[in-house]
Amino acid sequence: MNFEELYKTDLHNHLDGSILMSTCVDIINQQKIVTKHWTMEDIEQGKITSEFLGQIVYARTDMKDLLEYLRAFDVTGACMQTELNLIRVVNETISNAAKSNIKHIELRYAPAFHTSTGLTQQQVQNIVAKAAKEASVQFKVSVTIIICTMKLFAPDSEITQATFALYDQQYPVPIAYDQAGPECMFQFTDYQKQTDAIKVPITLHAGEAAGAEAVKSAVLVGRATRVGHGVRSFESTEVMELLRDRKIYLEMCPTSNTQTNVQGISKTLEDYPLKKYLDFGIKVTLNTDNAMISRCSVASELELMTQKLNLEPVDILMITNFGFEAAFNPNAEEKEKLREEAFKWNVKCLSKYDPEVEKKFCERMKLFQ
């Protein structure tokens, strides 16, 4: 099956996890950027190569946990601290998405992590939003920016307050809210007053490092209409029913989940709950999380799940359709037009493998009404 030809979305894509490896190598060597992982002498001796950085950045299935996975951002973040570097990374990420038939992408990032050279969070967001708009037009990809607050920073800190101030501004592309970071830090309840006040769509990381109760909290306390990962929702039938009844979309990222050692998920992924959720009536989407760090694409995730879970063409049609349904785009007419175009194209592509795929889709969708 040709997964590349399908029209797809990537709703859970960390911008600093999707920078090209070649771009990291180029920026580090050209701009002489030093981190705790290497010295200036290493740069001068030409040691900073793709192979060298790969040992630090590329995720593995034998990693201990999410924290080990996150060390890659020491490197990628260091390469995204200036206006020109931010523009380059946004442009390349959207360009690469277009090559893989991604028709809508949502780039999430924390502006607070891109201010080490003197840029303010507002300046960072203005740069990213403008670059995203220009790349969106150039490569014909719909783009939304998801601005993240981080659990590392207290709700009343200057950093968090500066991030929340960003949601009151207008940008050339749509924006949304996410809270990310280690789940052992500040929780959704700590930021509830601020999230209640913002007017943008909300997705929250939950059910990855923490279990089903975190997913429940994301929906009930955090007001999330989508949940980032949500993979551990199977731990509670109550939570699965909540997701189904409230029509919450899960942003699932299988490859990343094996690398961050998610509890209850085998490394071989034969027990990955995506199909279980789909059959239960929960709307699921497939995403990369960190395309470069995890070395995956939406197409490769679709192929992986098809192999591991024996997905049928109708399952793939449903998953891709949910991606366009779940997109954070306030222009309802534009959003529906894109979904319809993608649906028609994907029916055409998948009909080669199952001539009755559209009929089966209509029957299966009754479960989600």
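The record above closes out task 2.4. Task 2.5 opens with a second protein, given below.
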Amino acid sequence: MSSDGLVRGTPTDNSQVQLVTITPQLLTEDHAQMLGAAVPQELLSYKPEPYRVGPGDTLYITVWDHPELTSPAGSQQQTAANGRLVRSDGTMFYPYVGAVKVAGMTIEQVRQTIGSKIAKFVERPQVDVGVVGYNSQQVLLQGAFMKTDPQPITTVPLTLGQALGTAQVNADQANMSDLILTRGGHDYHLDLTALGNGHSIAQDIYLKPGDRLMLPYNDTQEVYVMGEVLRPLAVTFRSVADITLTQALGRAGGLNPVTSSGKEVYVIRGAKNIDNTPAKVFQLDARSPAAFALGDRFRVKPGDVVFVGAAGVTRWNRVLSQLLPSANLLSSAATANYNATR
């Protein structure tokens, strides 16, 4: 361990720390892993089934050439006034037929059921069924959204992208790197920044009835920049959780040109869980301007610590500044003792 407290050398020097040099190859591998792990395959492979009627839905049933069945409240009334509410037991009432169990049926199945039952009273009925009130199947939203009202699942499949667009993400307060989609008791963590790269993968993720979207706030999402920088600080993740190493250093005023060592720029990751998983220490040699091109592609994550080490002469000067007062004190004491014995 060096005088500035950092472990140097190979990963074998300390089983709890893995030292990794930031290189173009590392950035390419990380980018590929990020895209590959952005969305679990089971989310992408899900395809919505035909809509099934449930309690709370309102159906509008048209029987052609029979306005008394289509609009019993009168044709001047709004469509919803002539709708048929599916009750809590899954049934709805229809003239001449009575209570019909429709919960769990597709729209086509409801149409066929109604048509077959009223055929006893209407010759060759032509029946059409539509949903004018979707209330049985919803997606719940919580967290840093402008609108957290439940969004209904309709006959038109709802995608993650559409749900986010309707809810309107609070860009100033949201942690975009950790959207949590809860489905069937399992939490899927999604990075919205990664989903937005290239074509929007969010449009390929269909939501299920009962899904819950939780977008955390970014009040605890910070990167800590310390060491030989001009302004040590904590950088908060804002609307885009895509903060690079170069941006983090820039917000701290950059490397101290007098005291810093350009080859000792470190990103410490995973220190909080070091008892279970070795922490990674990424090193960037920033002595050349080209190195900042690498830093501009290296994404820091919440909880990372960016540390800039001191130059050798700086460490030596600090050692001297600590030794000289002690030496002066010892010299003064020796002089005083000598004068007292004379």
